[in-house]
Amino acid sequence: MKSLWPIVFALSTGFFWGTYGPVLAQARTFEKSPFKPYVMIGIAYLIWGIIGGLVGMAVKGDSFSFTRAGTYWGFAAGTLGAWGALALTLAMYTGGMSMPQVVMPIVFGTAVSVSAIVTVLTSKTNADPRLYMGIVGMAICIVTVAYYTPHSAPHAPKPAEAPAAKEPA
Question: For the whole model, what pTM was predicted?
Answer without folding.
Answer: 0.69
